[in-house]
Every structure is written in C-alpha cells, then in structure tokens.
C-alpha cells in the first residue's frame, strides 16, 4: 500500500515483510540502535546497550507470528524503516520500530507510526496501541508523548543476562508501557 510522505519526500510503500527480508531488516534495526552507525540518527541506544538488538531468528519470529505482522517500509524500492504490529485482544502492540539513521529527523517516523495505528485499527478493530520503551530514553518517550502516547508507570524489568537483547551498560534499565487511544474519531 502507498501513502503520502513528508513534503519533499518520495512516496512510501508499506508491505508485510517476508522471511527473505530478514537479513536486511536485521541490518536496518541494528543500524538504527546499536554501534557507531546508530549515532548518525537520534534513536541510538549505543550508550545504554552494546551487542545485538535482534537477530534473523527473532525477526523471522515476528514475521511469522500468527497474531502479528512486520511492516517493511520502502522508498524508491529501498528498505528504509520497519515496525511490528501484534494483535493483543483490545489492543495492538507496536514494536521493532526502526528508521534508517540517515532518514531520521525529517518527519518519516510520524508518517510510519500514523500508518501503523491506522493499519492496527482497520485490521483488528483495536482501540489502543501499546508499546514498551526503555525508561532511560526520555527523549524518545517525549517524542511518543507528542504523538499522543501516555506513560502508564507500568514497568517491566530489562532481561539482564540475556544477550539476545544486548549487553547493558547500566544497571537501572527497565521498559515502560506507553499507551494511546487509536479509536476512529
């Protein structure tokens, strides 16, 4: 499906990712969050976590989840972003959101999250979108708050000791649940 993009941008194409996309999706996600390449954008977690953020097995699990989908976002045929949507009862979960670092800061994220909300609402009839964000990421939480998400004060511990999620550089990491009402108005 196509949708409009910020002024001056080429059209975006949103499609369900396939298993064949997994290597490119892992590279995209890693570039947006880990290592020196992530420092080009503003979503980096490089000061909080080292190591991997995901792997092909994890990405394929999201792609093939019966109650979910992984949206691949392309511009001019090239992968520039992705996000996970998972149906969870009356809500949808939004995760694995990544935008190529050199494409961040120009309004692309706003377009993608709006499309994800529309897709979840129309596909599953859900009233809310849920996500979890590392609570130390105040800048990122503030960005989501400007998009209508609210902090709940509900926290989940970071999975310390499970290097599939990275190697923590701090001992105070936790995930906070953010929620937004996405009912049609």
Describe the structure.
- By secondary structure, this protein is α+β, with helices and mostly antiparallel strands.
- Helices cover 27% and strands 34% of the residues.
- The protein contains five helices and ten strands, in the order ββααβαβββαβαβββ.
- The strands form two sheets. The protein has an eight-stranded mixed β-sheet.
- Strand 4 and strand 5 (78-88) form a beta hairpin.
Give the arrangement of secondary structure elements.
Blueprint: E1 2-3, E2 12-16, H1 22-33, H2 35-38, E3 49-50, H3 56-63, E4 68-75, E5 78-88, E6 91-99, H4 108-124, E7 128-134, H5 138-146, E8 150-157, E9 167-168, E10 174-181
Parallel strand pairs: 6-7
Antiparallel strand pairs: 1-2, 2-4, 3-9, 4-5, 5-6, 7-10, 8-10
Helix pairs in contact: 1-3
Structure, briefly:
The protein is an alpha+beta fold and 185 residues long. It has five helices and ten strands; from the N terminus they run ββααβαβββαβαβββ.
Form type: globular
The largest sheet, given as strand count, sense and whether it forms a barrel, is: 8 strands, mixed
Q: Write down how many β-strands occur, each being a DSSP E stretch of 2 or more residues.
A: 10
Name the average pLDDT.
87
pLDDT < 50 stretches: 2-9
Kindly report the spatial arrangement of strands forming the biggest sheet. Answer: 1-2-4-5-6-7-10-8
SSE ordering = EEHHEHEEEHEHEEE
Question: Number of helical segments?
Answer: 5
Strand content: 25-35%
Helix content: 25-40%
What are the key terms here?
about 180 residues; alpha+beta; globular; disordered N terminus
């Amino acid at each position: 499906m196509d949708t409009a993009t910020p002024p001056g941008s080429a059209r975006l194409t949103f499609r369900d990712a396939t298993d064949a996309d997994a290597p490119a999706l892992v590279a995209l996600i890693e570039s947006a969050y880990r290592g020196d390449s992530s420092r080009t954008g503003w979503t980096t977690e490089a000061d909080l976590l080292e190591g991997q953020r995901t792997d092909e097995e994890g990405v394929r699990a999201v792609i093939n989840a019966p109650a979910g989908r992984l949206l691949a976002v392309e511009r001019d045929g090239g992968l520039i972003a992705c996000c996970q949507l998972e149906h969870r009862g009356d809500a949808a979960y939004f995760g694995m959101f990544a935008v190529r670092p050199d494409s961040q800061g120009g309004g692309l994220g706003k377009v993608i999250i709006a499309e994800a909300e529309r897709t979840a609402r129309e596909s599953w009839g859900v009233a809310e979108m849920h996500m979890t964000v590392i609570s130390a990421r105040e800048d990122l939480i503030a960005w989501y708050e400007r998009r209508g998400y609210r902090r709940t004060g509900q926290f989940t511990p970071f999975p310390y000791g499970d290097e599939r999620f990275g190697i923590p550089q701090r001992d105070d990491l936790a995930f906070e649940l953010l929620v937004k009402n996405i009912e049609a108005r």
